[in-house]
Amino acid sequence: MNPFYITGDIPDKYFCDREKETEWLLNKVKNRAHILLTSPRRMGKTQLIYHLYETPEVKNQYYTFYTDIFPTTSLHEMVLLLSKEIYRVLVPRGKAALDRFLASLHSLKGSFGYDPVTGAPSFDVKLGDIHSPALTLEEIFNYLENADRPCIFAIDEFQQITHFPEKNVEALLRSYVQHTNNCLFIYAGSNRHILENMFHSPAKPFYNSTEQLYLDRIPREKYISFAQRMFSEGGITLSIEAATYAYDTFEGHTYYVHNLFHNAFSFAQGKKIISVDDMKSVLLNLLEEKRHSFSSLMNQLNYQQKEIIIALAKDGKATGLTSAAFIKKHALKSPSSVQFAISTLLDKQIVTYENEGRSKWFMISDRFLSEWIRNTY
C-alpha cells in the first residue's frame, strides 16, 4: 500500500510530524480559545484539523465538524453546508443526538425526519428550502449551544464570506459566536491578505477574537527521515539526494512534496532504489499530465498577468515587484501595471505571499504550475 496519502484521512502512522502544531491546538482547545489557522494552500491545514479531531482528548469529548465553504457564493449556501455537516456527524451518534439537532431546525422542519418504512433518518434539504438563512443560522447556533457535549466547528476558506452578496455577514456570525459557550471555532484559510484584514483590523467584527497559528513547512530533516522510513518499509531505498531534491524543489510545501513521494513510490515498484534522476523523471511525468489544464489557465490570463507569473516562476519567489530592478530584469511594463496584475492574481489565489521580516515574498500558489511554467517559457 502506498504510504503517502494524498486523499482522504491520514492514519497516524502515515502522518508526518506536526507534533508542535497539534500540541498548540490542543492547548488552545483546552483553554477554550477560538483559532485562526492560516497557511499557503495545500500546506496541510485540513489534514491537521482532522488529525486534531482524532486525538483522544478531542475525539472522546467533543462533537467535531468540518466544512469547506470555498465553493459557496452566498449565506444560503453556507447555511446549507453547515446544517448538512452537523447532520452527517450526528447520524452515527444515534437517535437521541440526532433528534436534538432536528428539533432545533424549526425553519426546515418539512425537509428532514425519518423514513416511515425503514425508520432511517433522512435529510433532504435543498438550497431553495432555506428561505431565511439568518433564521436557520440562528437555529444552528442554538443547537451548538445546547448540544449534549461541547463542539468544535472548523470552517475552511473562511474568507469566502467576504464575497457573499448579503450585507454584514461578518457581523452576523460574530454576534452568534460571541454568545456561544459550548462551541469553539477554527477559522481556516489560505487567502492571507483577506483573513489578516478580517481578524487584525480594529474596524472588523472578528478583530482580536482568536489565537492565530500560521502553518509553515515541515522541517527538512524530519520530512526526509519520514520519507526514507516509509520507502524502507516498502522494501525500497530512497536516496538522500532524491529525498532532498523532492523537498528542495518545492521548498517543503507539503502537498507537492508528498505528491511527488506518492508518485515515486508507485514508480518504484520492482526497483530497489530511487535515485535523484528517478525523482526528476517522476516530476516531469507529473507535469506532462497537467499540461492541458495549465495551458488552459494561462490562456485565461491577460498579457500583464501572464508576464508576472512567468517572472515569479523564473525567480521562484520575489519581493519588491514594483521596484525598478524587478521590472527591468523581467522587461515588465510599469510599476502600476505590475501592481494591478498582482492584485488580480492574489484575488484569484493564483499568486500568494509570505511575510519574512518586513518583506512580502510573492510566489505562484500552485507549485506544480510554477515548475511547468519554468520548464515551458
Structural overview:
The chain has helices spanning 19-30, 45-54, 56-59, 75-90, 95-102, 133-146, 169-177, 192-200, 220-233, 240-249, 254-267, 276-289, 291-299, 303-315, 324-329, 335-347, 367-376; strands at 35-38, 63-68, 112-114, 121-123, 151-156, 183-189, 211-214, 237-238, 273-274, 351-356, 359-364. The two termini are 37 Å apart. It is built from 17 helices and 11 strands. It is globular. A 5-stranded parallel beta sheet has the order 2-5-6-1-7, sandwiched between helices. It has a two-stranded antiparallel ribbon with strand order 3-4. Strands 8-9 form a two-stranded parallel sheet. The protein has 3 domains: 18-214, P-loop containing nucleotide triphosphate hydrolases (Rossmann fold, 3-Layer(aba) Sandwich), CATH 3.40.50.300; 220-289, Helicase, Ruva Protein, domain 3 (Orthogonal Bundle), CATH 1.10.8.60; 292-376, Orthogonal Bundle (Arc Repressor Mutant, subunit A), CATH 1.10.10. The mean pLDDT is 94. It has 377 residues and is an alpha/beta fold.
List the helices and strands and how they pair.
Blueprint: H1 19-30, E1 35-38, H2 45-54, H3 56-59, E2 63-68, H4 75-90, H5 95-102, E3 112-114, E4 121-123, H6 133-146, E5 151-156, H7 169-177, E6 183-189, H8 192-200, E7 211-214, H9 220-233, E8 237-238, H10 240-249, H11 254-267, E9 273-274, H12 276-289, H13 291-299, H14 303-315, H15 324-329, H16 335-347, E10 351-356, E11 359-364, H17 367-376
Parallel strand pairs: 1-6, 1-7, 2-5, 5-6, 8-9
Antiparallel strand pairs: 3-4, 10-11
What's the number of domains? Answer: 3
Q: List unreliable stretches of 5+ residues.
A: none
Q: Rounded to an integer, what's the Rg over CA atoms?
A: 23 Å
Strand count, sense and barrel status of the largest sheet are:
5 strands, parallel
Report the total helices.
17
Helix percentage: 40-55%
Q: How many beta-strand runs?
A: 11
Tell me which oligomeric state these chains represent.
single chain
DSSP strand content:
5-15%
Annotated CATH homologous superfamily of the largest domain? P-loop containing nucleotide triphosphate hydrolases
CATH fold descriptor of the largest domain: Rossmann fold
What is the second-level CATH architecture of the largest domain?
A: 3-Layer(aba) Sandwich
Q: Give the N-to-C terminal Cα separation.
A: 37 Å
CATH class of the largest domain: Alpha Beta
